[in-house]
Amino acid sequence: MARKHSKLTVILVAGTDISQYCTDSNVEKSAGTEDNTTYGKNSQVFDPTLLTGAFGCSGKYDSTASTGPRALLVPLIGTSVTVKHRPEGTGSGLPQDSFTAVITKYTETAPVAGFRTWALETQPSDDWDHTAQT
After folding, report:
1. d(CA 56, CA 27)
2. 102 burial class (0-12, 13-18, 19+ CB within 10 angstroms)?
3. What confidence tens digit (pLDDT) does each residue in 60-83 have?
4. First-residue to last-residue Cα distance in the chain
5. At 124, which helix (H) or strand (E)?
6. pLDDT value for 2
7. How far apart are CA 87 and CA 96, in angstroms?
8. DSSP string, 9-45
């Protein structure tokens, strides 16, 4: 089994590499179901429907006014952008998830005894491209 360290992860949002600000990310692929149970059945019957998913990332707040996560991500709330998630880093032949997503939420958290953090949530839209990087 070939293991890969998460520190190699690269995340691009709207063409900008935000990896240097990220400490965590999550990729979710899932499918909907339709209940097709009819009278006389003892158990529910489900059929698959459309694929869906989610993507989010987060990290330590960086106050860099023009290039930090706040400056880069807040203006994108409510827009559709291209997101690229590279779980093994950037390089020819390495895996990549590329998709269009609506930026749905940007959150900043300020604990009294800790560092300020930020988090981004997106709603992917349409099919994902899982083609390896060229």
Report:
1. 7
2. middle
3. 998 887 888 999 999 999 999 999
4. 24
5. strand 117-129
6. 81
7. 7
8. -EEEETTEE-GGG-SEEEEEEEEEEEE---TT-SS--
**DSSP-derived 3-state class of residue 66:** coil
CB atoms within 10 A of CB 70: 18
This prediction's pTM: 0.89
2.60.40, 1.10.3480, 3.10.20, 2.40.30: CATH of 6-34+45-129: 2.40.30
What is the model's pLDDT at position 66?
81
Q: Which of helix, strand or coil describes residue 132?
A: coil
Query: Distances from the Cα of 12 to the Cαs of 15, 21, 50, 70, 82, in angstroms?
Result: 6, 11, 26, 15, 8
Distances (CA, A) of 63 to 4, 22, 60, 107: 31, 14, 10, 15
> What's the pLDDT score for residue 4?
84
